[in-house]
Design goal:
The complex is a heterodimer. Chain A is built from two helices and four strands. Chain A is an alpha+beta fold. By secondary structure, chain B is α/β, with parallel strands linked by helices. Helices cover about 40% and strands about 20% of the residues of chain B. Classes of the chains: A alpha+beta, B alpha/beta.
Chain lengths: ~80, ~260
């Protein structure tokens, strides 16, 4: 079976820490930073479990500030 | 597979729409407006209409929409977006003309303009964001506020004996002969956002083809106005808003023919 690898790149300075990408992720890859904040004072999102990402783009589609880029590789 | 092997331009499947400007949106964290702006920017780009689109910005939270989507815009007086769009479209019949309005704009101060533009069947697309509250001015009651919903001006909840009933304006517009497509969508999940995108695409196609007025209502959240976190706002919306404002097509002239 083909294995799907995904990754997201988050524009940390643009992120407002709304948590919607974390809620949308079906494989629980994303989390908000617990302590660190960006220049605007928001706890930005990051890939807490990068190996679980399948590149489905759900997080990017629901992101109101369009700060997520998604990459996807299907290994055959 | 290593992350640096995956993160490679050749593997990119989703990125920021080209038509969305670099400006940081002024919306609160988790606001539905951002998602809808993104959908509109993607669609105009995909349809190759960047040079052929004129948007009409409202008064309300989305008043700065022209700062975020890189197409031509005009800013209407409060509630008058459909009237201005009528003029723009009649003078430029080949252009894609759409209005972007909130519930205070479309269903309070702009009810007359909206209903008459839709009744005349102007060939415009109306994107209507319904979050049941006046977000920009600090969370006062809107005509669309639900019964019992607490706002700054109804601190004990909206009372129908005092404030009247919530107004489902899309349902009203669907009754008019001038509208060709009226639908109600949401953008709280990826699946809902994809459906909303195809609805807005259809509205834009109708506007270009001159089939009449299309209305796409997006039931959205206002986490600042509702005094909930963005995630809790989505849950509250699913629980309460969808009961009064059920999702789905209210009118689709293509199917009825």
């Amino acid at each position: 079976m083909a294995k799907v690898h995904g990754a997201v790149v988050i524009d940390e300075e643009r992120c407002k820490g709304c948590d919607l990408c974390v809620a949308a992720c079906p494989t629980k890859v994303l989390l908000l930073k617990d302590k660190e904040v960006n220049n605007r004072g928001y706890h930005y999102a990051y890939m807490a479990q990068p190996e679980a990402c399948i590149g489905c783009s759900s997080c990017a589609i629901v992101c109101p500030d369009a700060c997520i880029e998604v990459y996807r590789v299907v290994e055959k | 597979m290593e992350l640096n092997q995956i993160i490679n331009p050749a593997n990119k499947v989703y990125s920021r729409p080209a038509l969305l400007s670099e400006n940081t949106m002024h919306y609160c964290p988790g606001c539905s407006h951002g998602v809808v702006h993104k959908i509109i920017a993607e669609l105009i780009d995909e349809m190759g209409q960047q040079e052929n689109t004129i948007g009409v910005a409202p008064v309300g939270c989305a008043v700065f929409a022209y700062n975020y989507i890189d197409v031509d815009w005009v800013e209407a007086a409060h509630g008058r977006a459909p009237a201005l769009a009528t003029a723009v479209k009649r003078l430029n019949p080949e252009k894609l003309v759409f209005t972007y309005q909130g519930d205070g704009d479309i269903s309070a101060i702009g009810t007359a303009e909206t209903i008459h533009a839709a009744n005349r069947g102007e060939n415009i697309a109306i994107i209507f964001i319904n979050n049941g509250i006046y977000g920009m001015t600090g969370g006062q009651m809107a005509p669309t506020t639900l019964e019992g919903q607490k706002t700054a001006t109804t601190p004990y909840g909206r009372r129908v004996d005092l404030n009247g009933y919530p107004l489902a304006i899309s349902t009203l517009l669907a009754q008019l002969d001038g509208t060709c497509y009226v639908t109600r969508q949401a953008v709280h999940t990826a699946a809902a956002a994809r459906k909303a995108k195809s609805a807005i695409k259809k509205a834009f196609q109708n506007a270009l083809a001159g089939r009449g007025t299309s209305v796409v209502e997006i039931v959205g959240t206002c986490s600042s106005g509702w005094k909930l976190s963005p995630r809790a706002s989505n849950a509250w919306m699913e629980e309460n808003m969808f009961e009064k404002y059920p999702l789905g097509d209210l009118k689709n002239a293509d199917v009825e023919k």
